[in-house]
Design a protein that fits this description.
Layout lengths: L11 H5 L6 H32 L2 H26 L4 H24 L5 H24 L1 H4 L5 H30 L1 H18 L5 E3 L8 H14 L1 H16 L6 H7 L3 H24 L7 H21 L3 H29 L2 H33 L1 H22 L13 H4 L7 E3 L2
Antiparallel strand pairs: 1-2
Length: 432
């Protein structure tokens, strides 16, 4: 990637935003910001509209299933597609399709003809196109920056995502209150179109599929690579431990009620992890290509478990808010090095498929965690459910850390991508 130009050893603020020195990454980041805001806008507005039409908490909850199911099924498909087609074009098709979906929802809403099934259909399809394009969206990141700025780029991505999770719902609430749902959806559609335009011109390596290879064969090739690089499996298992065993979001209303803070306090508890994650991502921005990425992941998850137990036993509102914020911070501390290592370990020709496995688990783990924590809380109470979940996660982390020595390798993820390329595969830079 000799065409890339970037900072070399710049300290301070410039080092913290080093990835933004690359023009292609700036376009990508602008597109990602608009895409993330669009996703938050449509999700928040649909939740409000479902409740406005039905008044049913159950039907609200089922929107989560409509979002999770496509991720579990279609992420792997997206990974195969991302390693066979033009990744930038694939991302743009997903953004355009989501824009059309939201604008169609705006039309039926403005016409006063919207029904609940419309909202479920748009939720499902929006999630489906996002699931198909997510592997491509992550797989192109190492092609936009130099290796020494990869961690910085992943941290910036996390910062963009967390900022969107804070700003998006608030913006949606203000817009629904001031201009109503129909115009909110119109703006939402325009945001998706802006995201499609922003990424125009990005240039990334295009990997030509092996002649005669079938999509199923491509999928098996990706699976074989992940099985060969067992450290990738270890990193994914650590993440699943946090999202499934350490799930807490579904229980926040219970803790808010027990603390006597009501719906306002619930809102603050829900927002605190996002603020904490933003703090954690910002703290990692200036570290550059840190060593010991595996240990960052291990101790990040362990710290997450500690914060989970503090939230479970906290008798004070202030301590609960701090614990909730730490859950976000520690999640960012383990997530950014983990994702950077996985991207660095994956050759470009397989990166979409490897990312698909991560995306599938990231999309399916939280809903499974919500269910598990809810069942445990119903049986033994919310505080004890979190304590047991945190303890089980600690045991899992200890087991994975002791078994996989590569997680303790100071240079994990530092092997040049070219050295990892599968035999017979090549790449060429194409203009977009």
């Amino acid at each position: 990637m000799s065409r890339l130009r970037g900072p070399q050893g710049r300290p301070g603020l410039r080092q913290a935003v080093a990835a933004l020195a690359y023009p292609d990454y700036r376009r990508f980041a602008a597109s990602l910001l608009l895409t993330s805001l669009g996703a938050q806008l449509v999700q928040t507005a649909i939740l409000w509209q479902v409740y406005e039409l039905t008044g049913s908490a159950l039907l609200l909850g089922l929107t989560g299933l409509a979002r999770a199911a496509p991720h579990m099924v279609l992420s792997l498909v997206g990974g195969v597609i991302a390693d066979r087609l033009d990744r930038v074009r694939l991302i743009q098709v997903g953004q355009l399709t989501n824009a059309v979906l939201v604008l169609a929802l705006a039309g039926v809403t403005l016409a006063g003809a919207v029904e609940v099934w419309h909202l479920y259909a748009v939720t499902f399809l929006n999630s489906a196109f996002t699931a198909v394009t997510q592997p491509a969206r992550t797989a192109i990141i190492p092609s936009l920056v130099k290796r020494e700025n990869l961690v910085n780029a992943v941290a910036l991505n996390a910062t963009i995502g967390q900022t969107s999770q804070i700003v998006g719902p608030a913006l949606a609430g203000v817009m629904v209150a001031t201009v109503d749902l129909g115009p909110t959806y119109v703006v939402n559609g325009l945001v998706y179109l802006g995201a499609m335009a922003a990424i125009t011109g990005v240039r990334v390596p295009a990997v030509t599929a092996v002649a005669g290879a079938s999509p199923w064969g491509d999928f098996l090739e990706g699976l074989a690579f992940v099985r060969k690089r067992t450290v990738i499996i270890s990193l994914l298992v650590l993440d699943m431990g946090a999202t499934v065993l350490g799930s807490y979001r579904a229980l926040l209303p219970i803790f808010a009620t027990s603390l006597g803070v009501g719906d306002v306090g619930y809102g603050f508890l829900s927002a605190a992890p996002g603020v904490g994650s933003l703090v954690g991502a910002t703290a990692l921005l200036s570290l550059g290509d840190m060593r010991y990425k595996g240990l960052y992941t291990l101790f990040g998850v362990l710290s997450y478990c500690f914060a989970l137990v503090v939230l479970a036993v906290s008798p004070w509102v202030a301590l609960s808010l701090v614990a909730a914020g730490l859950l976000g911070t520690t999640n960012a501390v383990q997530m950014i090095p983990r994702n950077s290592a996985i991207l660095a370990l994956s050759p470009d020709g397989l990166r979409g498929r490897v990312e698909a496995f991560r995306s599938m688990l990231a999309g399916g783990g939280p809903p499974l965690g919500y269910m598990l924590s809810g069942v445990l809380a119903a049986a033994i109470g919310a505080p004890l459910a979190l304590v047991i979940g945190g303890a089980a996660c600690v045991v899992l982390v200890a087991g994975v850390g002791l078994k996989d020595r590569e997680l303790r390798d100071p240079d994990l993820g530092s092997v040049p991508w070219e050295d990892e390329a599968p035999e017979g595969e090549g790449a060429r830079v194409v203009a977009r």
